[in-house]
Amino acid sequence: MKRLLLTLLALLCLALPSWAEEALVIDGVTFSADGTVLIAYPADKPDAYYTVPDGVVTIGDGAFFQNEHITGVTFPASLRHIGVAAFQYCSNLTELEMHYRVQTLGQGAFVGTNLTTLSIPTSTSDLPEELLMDMPRLTDVYLSNSVKTVGGKTPAEGADFSLVSDDPAVVLHAPPYSEAEKIVRASGHAYMIDEWGTYTSTQDVA
Questions:
Q1: 108-123 pLDDT, tens per residue?
Q2: Is 69 strand, coil or helix?
Q3: pTM for this one?
Q4: 30, 31, 111, 194 - which has most CB atoms within 10 Å?
Q5: What angle do CA 41, 108, 198 make, to 5 degrees?
Q6: How is the chain split among helix, strand and coil, in percent rounded to 5?
């Protein structure tokens, strides 16, 4: 019987993903062993606000999925990537402080949140599909002049912002003489071309 239990335990360990073998857990939040990936933020964690620790480079796919307690998140200067569905259905999330160095936003990252505005970081060049779907309070999206493609397509290739947001009442802002301007003009959304529109996040500092 003991040998059988040891065999089952060994098989279970083999089945675990590589990060799980050396995961780092801080205050209930799971990180990779080196602290560069935020893997999982518990859905039942009751805190209203969370500051992602400095040194985190990636927020993993579905990391904050369906946490209905959290209202605000601050990102560190080290963050570069936000995963697929990272904040999906965090229905009370109303505030994101996103550093300008974030380079990639995952498909459906903010679906079902209650954000009212969103500034695309000045290091982000592509807007993935479904990024801003099912966001009933969203009123304005600010595209920086770094945005060149939607779902990997340029305006000339038929970039379609309706695949990013399904609400044409959301006002898109873009700087003039940019690819972002071409994207918003073809979007079918309300839009504004702002003369001083080099948009930054709330933490666009070195």
A1: 999 999 999 999 999 9
A2: coil
A3: 0.83
A4: 31
A5: 100
A6: 15, 20, 65
